[in-house]
Amino acid sequence: MNTYLPTLKQLQYLVALKDHGHFGRAAEACFVTQSTLSAGLRELESLIGITLVERTRRVVRFTPLGLRIAEKAERVLREVDELADMARAAGKPLAGELRLSVIPTIAPFLLPRLLPRLRQQWPELKLFLREETSQAACDSLHRGHVDCVLLALPYACGEVENADLFEDRLFVAFPPGEQPPAHVTPASIDEHRLLLLEDGHCLKDHALAACNRPELRAEATMLGTSLHTLIQMVGNGLGMTLVPEMAVQSGLLDNTGATARPLEADHPSRRIALIWRKGSPRVKEFRLLAQALKTITKEGMGRAA
């Protein structure tokens, strides 16, 4: 009995449709026309004799079996990527493509210092960057969309390995003209004036954990979509916020009139780390990259790694 085996291209179409929920956007993600993607999926359904997707004018709905097959296809494609990773890892280290996700509370402050040195040190490395929230970055990692992530820990990211780079201390930013207390402790933070990032940014959780005041989560005004937005609000006298040291060092508070003081607490920092999927065949490359990042940040930020 002959069994039809799906092609990798068909599996890619199926996974893209699951991710995007729309034929047009899935086709764009696969760099093909919508008709090509639709025809490929219809051929897959015809040859295996199963309806995978219910099609209407407005909705793309996977059948229960179609959803299970799409989830399995994700794992198959990830394994295929790892085959290529094994071959790449056997060659010259940190040469060729590497896909890196970076969270928004790290990317604009750290990457300008890192990238020129990485290009100088590893000229054959082709680094493709994605800026994503912590949860989105972890999802991209486990789906095989990226190879590794620059993340702030602690954060639950599933089955991963990590290499710590450095500790990033938290500061409290005060509005212009306001005299900060001599010692900024969690108890000195006015919960009615505290501005925090929206849900989805791990910095909010790190800040609340450092303060160890449960009522802050309920009372704080959570308005900011980015650290830049929060600092502009602080600069306009709308409240105070917590900001990481790397952002202060990068000049985020310049020309705002805001003043930042280090938070004095039991755990006043977050850990910046490079993470990757557990068991990845490129682990030696990732550890080499982590060591390079650690050295660069130590030299550029004047801290012990």
Automatic annotation (TrEMBL):
Organism: Allosphingosinicella flava
UniProt-listed Gene3D superfamilies: Periplasmic binding protein-like II (3.40.190.10), Winged helix-like DNA-binding domain superfamily/Winged helix DNA-binding domain (1.10.10.10)
Pfam family, one: LysR_substrate
Name assigned to this protein: LysR family transcriptional regulator
UniProt keyword DNA-binding, yes or no: yes
GO cellular component assignments: protein-DNA complex
Domain of life: Bacteria
PROSITE patterns in UniProt: HTH_LYSR
Keywords for the protein's UniProt record, in alphabetical order: DNA-binding, Transcription, Transcription regulation
InterPro entries tied to this protein: LysR_HTH_N, LysR_subst-bd, WH-like_DNA-bd_sf, WH_DNA-bd_sf
Keyword DNA-binding: yes
Domain called HTH lysR-type: residue spans: 6-63
UniProt similarity note: Belongs to the LysR transcriptional regulatory family.
PANTHER family for the chain: TRANSCRIPTIONAL DUAL REGULATOR HCAR-RELATED, TRANSCRIPTIONAL REGULATOR OF OXIDATIVE STRESS OXYR
GO MF terms, alphabetically ordered: DNA binding; DNA-binding transcription factor activity
